[in-house]
Design a protein that fits this description.
This protein is an alpha/beta fold and about 350 residues long. It has two domains: about 170 residues, Alpha-Beta Complex (Quinone Oxidoreductase, Chain A, domain 1); about 140 residues, NAD(P)-binding Rossmann-like Domain (Rossmann fold, 3-Layer(aba) Sandwich), CATH 3.40.50. About 30% of the residues lie in helices and about 25% in strands. The chain is built from eleven helices and 15 strands. Strands 3, 4, 5, 6, 7, 14 and 15 form a seven-stranded mixed β-sheet that branches. It has a six-stranded parallel β-sheet with strand order 10-9-8-11-12-13, sandwiched between helices. A hairpin with an 8-residue loop joins strand 1 and strand 2. Helix 4 crosses helix 5. The two termini are about 15 Å apart.
Length: about 350
């Protein structure tokens, strides 16, 4: 099969022919229809993710058609169109049995701990636990764009912060996960303020229905959120994993507010000096989140398929496999609005 392989940190991916993946006994092999390019892939590309060993095929935001089925699989057959979360849980441990598949001790991470989906084919273990059928009306590029950003945003808003209609949601970071949170938050009935430093991203947020767009370069963004919302946001989403946005998200909340750390802190940002006085005096709740359990896909897909939210504006660019390296390098600077999705694996 044809694949883009990471062979060195910050080096262009090598697009070449590699061996087809073996089908896991409890899994399937998918023909990849589309794969998103995510900031988490950039972390791998830079060498910031300790789980990654070279060489590796990146890519964890994928959908596809079942090409081969392992003997232990009961729910799927060749020809099924499916999607999977980026955390593939075993389905058998105590955490999985409790519905907490994102903390499964036996999890597999395509694009990080095994070969990913910057390729024509991908092997997906634990298929009965993790695969979900795609609605017939959903195009592959959109399904891939859901990837880890929409699913992570959905889990952050509904599974962690329990966002309610009429509340104010402040989003620090207007990239893929931030814009996903904006659109999902509006669909859930919240009012939304987006904070960023890139004018194009702020304009994009307004075009997608943000009630307020705040340029953090113009002053104290947290204070601006508190003023706009009449005392502070009820829920804040941190979507970059850096101190500036994490501190801003905390300080933007009203008393008893809830903040969700969605952005992945890496490198020097794994340790931050945070305003714990704000947590104490405001009686704030601070949550971490990572991915989404597969059992939550039906509620998200139903929201989309039912026409309650249009996520197609997420797709910024449909690109070729050979263009993946350029998209990864673009994350070194503030990336352009919208998600890049690989839809052509032969060029």
């Amino acid at each position: 099969m044809r694949a883009a392989v990471l062979t060195g940190w910050r080096k262009p991916l090598e697009v070449s022919k590699v061996d087809d993946p073996d089908c896991p006994k409890d899994g399937v092999v998918l023909k990849v229809l589309a794969c998103g390019i995510c900031r988490s892939d950039w972390h791998s590309w830079t060498g910031a993710d300790p789980d990654v060993s070279l060489p590796l095929i990146p890519g964890h935001e994928y959908c596809g058609v079942v090409e081969e089925v392992g003997p232990g699989v009961t729910r799927w057959q060749v020809g099924d169109r499916v999607i999977a979360p980026f955390i593939l849980a075993c389905g058998h441990c105590a955490d999985c049995a409790s519905g907490h598949q994102t903390i499964c001790a036996h999890q597999v991470l395509p694009g990080f701990t095994q070969a990913g989906a910057f390729a024509e084919l991908i092997a997906v273990p634990f298929a009965d636990t993790n695969l979900t059928p795609l609605p017939e009306t959903m195009e592959p590029a959109l399904a891939a764009a859901l990837g880890c950003r929409v699913t992570t945003a959905w889990q952050a808003l509904t599974g962690r912060a329990a966002l309610r209609p009429g509340e104010w949601l402040a989003i620090f970071g207007g990239g893929g996960v931030g814009i996903s949170a904006l659109m999902l938050g509006r669909a859930l009935g919240a009012r939304v303020a987006v904070v960023d430093v890139v004018p194009d991203k702020l304009n994009y947020a307004v075009a997608l229905g943000a009630d307020a767009a705040i340029d953090a370069r113009a002053g104290d963004a947290a204070e601006a959120v508190r003023e706009i919302t009449g005392g502070g946001a009820h829920v804040a989403i941190e979507a970059l994993g850096i101190p500036e946005t994490t501190i801003g998200a905390m300080k933007s909340l009203r008393k008893l507010g809830r903040m969700v750390q969605v952005g992945m802190p890496t490198g020097k940002n794994t340790t931050m000096a945070l305003p714990m006085d704000a947590v104490y005096s405001g009686q704030l709740a601070v949550y971490g989140t990572r991915g989404m359990a597969a059992w939550k896909y039906p509620s998200l897909l139903s929201l989309i398929d039912g026409g309650h939210v249009d996520l197609t504006p997420l797709i910024g660019r449909r690109v070729k496999l050979t263009e993946a390296s350029g998209e990864l390098a673009a994350f070194d600077a503030p990336a352009p609005p919208g998600v890049a999705v690989i839809t052509n694996f032969l060029a």
